[in-house]
Amino acid sequence: AVCRERTQTCFYTTNFGRKEATPSMRPRSLSRLLLVLSSATVARSVDVNPWHSSSLELGGGYDESSWLGTAEDRHHGMVFEEAARYELAIRGEPPKIFVLDAADESSTITEILNRQEGVCAGQRLEGEPASIGKEFRFWSSGHSQKQIEMEFWEYMNRWENCDVDQMKIDGNSRLLGGPHTPKFIKHTYAKLNVSEEELRFVVLLRDPVQRAYAEYQNCVRNGRGCSPVQASNNFEETVARELQDWKKCNAERDFTTTRWQGCGTCDGYSLPGLYAEQLENWFQYFNSSQFLVATEDMLKESPKPLFNAIVDHIGLQDAAVPRFFPKAEAIELPESSTELAQFFDQPNVKLLEMADTYPDVFFKHMPGTKQQFFKLP
Predict the structure, then answer these.
(1) 19: how many CB neighbours lie within 10 A of its CB?
(2) Which residues contact 77 (CB under 8 A, 6 or more apart)?
(3) Mean pLDDT of 283-298
(4) How far apart are alpha carbons 273 and 211 in whole angstroms?
(5) Quick one: three-class SS letters along 96-107?
(6) What is the pLDDT of residue 300?
(7) Which of 98, 135, 101, 99 has the alpha carbon at shortest distance from 272?
(8) Confidence label for 104 from pLDDT (cuts 50, 70 and 90)
(9) Which one has a higher pLDDT value, 309 or 214?
(10) Beta pairing partners, 99
């Protein structure tokens, strides 16, 4: 009860030590406290440390059946589901609209939608850096399913000031490429007893070569989005190494698992541009009719029609069309990008074939027209 008072400093004690609750945990944090305590209690009986990284990290060998098999995790899941009844009654339902993109435009679209009447914008939590303000990278931050459930209500605190019936939107430029992200969302929402059929996804794609070079510029100039794979400041050398590793992985890998998920394509400059593989992964967990896919060029060339299609897709009533749409800065590609463009020839053909298969999913797509989504440099 003390933890529910905003003005109190709250502590919880486990057999692993005494920890101070963060300010974002204090409001309505009863369920999260129960999850922490239940994990510690069951851990004593099964000799598992819930704070140990090996208990939390997903890793490349994630096996759902093994995760659900331990006494600790089964108990933890039951506590999460029980807590959901209490939490959702107070907070309202979690975000049902997700803006997934590779165009680095999700923050733009999300901000425009967040300004609409009937939409409540998520807020940065106390103590978080200003860079968190535009994108909440909760689902794509490398969690395990268990850790997501441990931190889910803290994530929901971003919308703690929203009315129960207001629309909530989560826009994130890392969601699309996360191999396990759709599985996390599907499983979590099922435990919350929130119908997955009500979820809607807006996908914005960027020419994969331009996306790769834009990521490089963000990494080198601004220090944003860098990963160990991107340690080198030389774009050409980094891309060459990525493509070499990709070819080697494809030659050696057992194809009983998908090569996209198994060859490190979440990081780096080039491989996250394999959009068809990413969309196929999402379509395994959600119906294709829940998606609207468009490109950055479509946003530039037909902003109002695309905006109208988006608000219609997500079910936002009486939306006000913006007077102007911010445009991404033009990028001058290096000459070496031609090799990267050639690498994407076949993946882009696969994306076009997918659009022919799902014409209602892709904005203004005409099957059989050989529409080019992306142009070579």
Answers:
(1) 13
(2) 68, 149, 191
(3) 94
(4) 7
(5) CEEEEECCCCHH
(6) 84
(7) 101
(8) low
(9) 309
(10) 171, 202
> Rounded to whole angstroms, what are the CA distances from 196 to 4, 136, 258, 312?
30, 20, 25, 18
User: What integer pLDDT is reported at residue 229 of this predicted model?
Assistant: 55
Distance CA 156, CA 122 (A): 9
109: Cβ contacts below 8 Å, ≥ 6 apart = 99, 101, 171, 202, 204, 299, 310
Phi and psi at residue 12, to the nearest 5°: -130, 145
Sign (positive or negative) of CA dihedral 81, 166, 201, 266: negative
Residue 59 CA to residue 74 CA, distance in Å, equals 20
Question: Which pLDDT band, with edges at 50, 70 and 90, does 62 fall under?
Answer: very low
- Mean of all residue pLDDT scores within the chain: 75
Task: Give the pLDDT score at 329.
Answer: 65
Complete DSSP assignment for 210-258: HHHHHHHHIIIII--S--GGG--S-HHHHHHHHHHHHHHHHHHS-TTS-
**Alpha-carbon distances of 107 from 179, 248, 330, rounded to whole Å:** 21, 35, 17
Whole-model pTM? 0.78
Tokens of 70: 């331990």
